[in-house]
Request: fold
Amino acid sequence: MSGEGTWVGLDVHARSVVGSAIDEASGEISTRRVGPRTEQIVEWVRNHPGPVMACYEAGPTGFGLARALAAAGIACEVVAPSKLERPAGDKVKTDRRDAERLARLLRIGELPAVRVPTEAEEAARDLVRAREDVRTDLMRARHRLSKLLLRQGLVWDATAWTGAHEQWLRGLRFDRRGVQLAFDEALDAVFTVGARRDRLDAAIVEMAETAALAGPVGRLRCLRGVSTLTAVGLCVEVADWHRFTGATIGSYLGLVPSEASSGARRVQGQITKTGNTHARRLLVEAAWHHRRPLRTSRERARRADGQPAMVRDRAEAGNRRLHQRWTRLDRRKKRPTISAVAVARELAGWCWSLAVLDERTPESTTTPPG
Reply:
């Protein structure tokens, strides 16, 4: 776009959009409030002298606008808001100034863009995150019920939320009508949310068998602590594993230490916790499984059944390495929570290596005898 074209920055909200356009030929900046409908935005952007390149910040409005602009032949970048730098002396923030600032940064190539997922990837991500929300709802419903019973002096001493526990809950009766009604509502909420979770689990397992996910999900399940739900969650959150390397995947997920170094002074702090929160939680939960000694597991063998020998060997090497990592950290008297994050960072690298592993191994390409 040297010497011609238009750079467009869009400040997108649910009910209003402000666009700022920089004409490369004249240097003129024009700003306009556009309607919130996608068709109106695309039409306004298209009316500028071409070639046109647009951008807007990622947010709750999603990626539909980026796809619509791409379908109209307009290049569009979706920007990561958390990585946009703002001058310390800039104390005025308006939609017009934000749109103009995006257009100027786009023009000089200083915008940190994010990957725009396909519609299928976004649908799979919505399903997995719906299950994540239900998991949180179920935990809260169980806590409310248990605390209600605690106020009545009732505590279940064995393992909670098993068949025996459920039978015990169904048999409880209270003399006071208010307590009985509150208990019935809390118990019904637990069962209702549990049924929602089971339906979503079944849908995710079915989705894991599709062509797009079957390969990487099957390979990731060979690792300890990575079930079908965890593997699907990692695959839909990361989407394209080939964007990263074993050294950069941890940084994308916020599992690397923060740093403030200058000159000869180097200071590292807690992990950055940037990037994808859902994938980071899944990895940290899976990392705890590697604390126990590595033994033969019937469930892990079932998950690895049908995978090429190359995949199984690499997964077992990762399982051994991750347990050894736990052991070394325990010897150094590290807190278990810190050890779990350190192992999760390394687990992310092993997940990456399995996800990008070529499925066409010698075993799978060799013609079976007979």
Observations:
- Residues 360-370 have pLDDT under 50 and may be disordered.
- The CA atoms of residues 159 and 168 lie 12 Å apart.
- The beta strands are 6-12, 17-23, 29-34, 52-57, 75-79, 113-114, 257-259, 268-271.
